[in-house]
Specification:
The chain is of the alpha/beta class. It is built from 6 helices and 7 strands; from the N terminus they run βαβαβαβαβαβαβ.
Length: about 230
């Protein structure tokens, strides 16, 4: 049977580009997101039919994550790849952030990937599958007051932590850390990056596909992908 992939935050940006690329390669793909209308629009745009499953829910809610995993396995009988992509940033610095918004970002960006790993590990051990955690260059360098950066440092730590847990079970773990990518992510920060080199979501999707398409026994553990010209 064709491989089965679950992507969180898959209705736009890097998640959607990765879903499209995997569908073209014959995968069955499930994508999650909070906005049911956006998920429906994405499904229509792919014309993937029964090979695409859309699931509305919160990536940081344990019941929603468990339900999504269960529905994927019930539908296709297996799970080969999971991509922890859901995440968001807040404009300004931690001096400006609303505390509840801070809590939401930390839960989505840090707890969300951990919950996804927790729920999917039994299935990935069975399939000797792969985990991709989408981090950020912000997870390797500090910027004054950037709480988003703190969450991505944690995501990077989680990737290595999980690798140590599962590598002897034949499960591959990859951290993909993009530089500046021109996606709807920037809408949360007040608009697209100005006067800066950028990557496209499709270019990051290709990096993810490179990682998950390695032969059995080969792991690509870290991929840092910047646009040429990005200094930091």
């Amino acid at each position: 049977m064709e491989p089965v992939t679950l992507i969180t935050g898959g209705s736009s940006g890097i998640g959607a580009a990765t879903a499209r690329a995997l569908l073209k390669r014959g995968h069955h793909v499930a994508v999650t997101g909070r906005d049911a209308d956006r998920l429906a629009a994405f499904a229509t745009s792919t014309a993937a039919g029964e090979r695409l499953l859309t699931l509305s829910g919160d990536a940081a809610d344990e019941a929603d994550v468990a339900s999504a995993v269960s529905k994927v396995v019930d539908r296709w009988g297996r799970l080969d790849t999971v991509i922890a992509n859901a995440g968001f940033s807040l404009p300004g610095t931690l001096e400006d952030h609303d505390p509840q918004a801070m809590r939401g970002m930390i839960l989505t960006n840090v707890l969300g990937p951990a919950l996804l790993v927790r729920e999917t590990l039994p299935h990935l051990r069975a399939s000797k599958g792969r985990i991709v955690i989408v981090g950020s260059v912000a997870g390797t360098r500090n910027t004054p007051g950037n709480l988003y950066s703190v969450t991505k440092w944690a995501a990077h730590a989680l990737a290595e932590n999980v690798r140590l847990l599962v590598t002897q079970d034949g499960v591959g773990v990859t951290l993909v850390a993009p530089g500046v990518v021109d996606t709807p992510f920037w809408d949360e920060r007040g608009g697209s990056p100005q006067a800066a080199p950028t990557l496209t979501a499709e270019q990051i999707a290709e990096a993810i596909l490179f990682a998950v398409s390695q032969p059995e026994g080969v792991e690509v553990n870290q991929l840092v992908v910047r646009p040429a010209g990005q200094v930091g």
